[in-house]
Amino acid sequence: MKILILPGDGIGPEIIAQATRVLDVLRSDGLKVETETAPLGGAAYDQYGAPYPQVTQDLARAADAVLLGAVGGPQYDTLDRPLRPERGLLAIRKDLNLFANLRPAILYPELANASTLKPEVVSGLDILIVRELTGDIYFGQPRGVHVNEAGEREGFNTMRYSESEIRRIAHVAFKAAQKRQKKLCSVDKANVLETTEFWKEIVTDVAKEYPDVALSHMYVDNAAMQLVRNPKQFDVMVTGNIFGDILSDEASMLTGSIGMLPSASLDQNNKGMYEPSHGSAPDIAGKNLANPLATILSLAMLLRYSGNNEAAAVRVENAVKAVLAQGYRTGDIFEAGTNKVSCSEMGDAVVAAL
Ligand code: NAD
Ligand code: IPM
Ligand code: MN
């Protein structure tokens, strides 16, 4: 398997360094992987003047899987929009056709008290958020800022979804639900937005092919509320790009910290990019404070989905469970009575557990 590693910006290189150490252990035990490293985001802009340069694109297309840290930082926020790190991330997702973003929010029992919610609300939590990743208001045209008929400046973006885009993500979500508790909740704003009323209609039609899955629908505002009121009512949730972005950050706090939520972004053939759901955390970058576990768990997802190597994935996930059971905690999941460690010390612990 060929893996392209994109450290990115901010805490990206720090968390990727720990995931790479995990990969090295697997390799020394016989896992066959070749790795390349390339820049994405601000790092790519600094080196090549573009957030998704040709060299990165060529390597990404040739790879079986991509492992990404995170991109972005305040020093890039005033660049022209096409040059910004976030554009590089959107470009690689679109270029590789990574339309299916899986974000599993699982609470490890040891972190029941790290969540800001009551332990009884979150204990045993296991939700899969299926977020459509290459459509919606993120990519819809027209977009921009112009002077309107009244002579006033006006910003505009366009929410749009084609039938085929909705159908393919719905199939991913129904198939995932079939392998789990067979419950799928489709999240929309059909009471206001035509695009998402259409989404609801198509998901309902796809449901006919999955009679064993119980489909429900929920408005996104209610879903945001239900996620903190009673998150365990959910099994799989499927939604569009922007609602999924927001709901998955919200769901991360049910697991203790955004530093715990991995993700897989897949195409039709399980080629994928794997990244933590969080960003480049400029406030703690360069301080060896970041939690590398979401990135290490993203590597486990890479091994499972693109590597088709369930045993290696489970081995990595078990090592993460072991370090949590041993009491190792980065600052974001620290509580009294546990052992506060740095990013690299957390990596040491995972390597030892492996
Ligand atoms: P963020 O996720 O980077 O940070 C939000 C908060 O969570 C911060 O307080 C941060 O310190 C904390 N945090 C995040 N990851 C952590 C970790 N692993 N360990 C401990 N604490 C962690 O979100 P933001 O501050 O809104 O965005 C910062 C930059 O990251 C922006 O430029 C944004 O565009 C970018 N971003 C990138 C991605 C990505 O690359 N996939 C995702 C989200 C945001
Ligand atoms: C994420 C991020 C990205 C998104 C940004 C950085 C473009 O928030 O991966 O969740 O909105 O998809
Ligand atoms: Mn996000």
UniProtKB/TrEMBL annotation:
The entry marks the following residues as binding substrate, namely R93, R103, R131, D221
GO cellular component terms?
cytosol
The EC number(s) given in the record are 1.1.1.85
Keyword Lipoprotein recorded: no
This protein's UniProt keywords? Amino-acid biosynthesis, Branched-chain amino acid biosynthesis, Cytoplasm, Leucine biosynthesis, Magnesium, Manganese, Metal-binding, NAD, Oxidoreductase
Chain ranges of the Isopropylmalate dehydrogenase-like domain: 2-350
Descriptive protein name: 3-isopropylmalate dehydrogenase
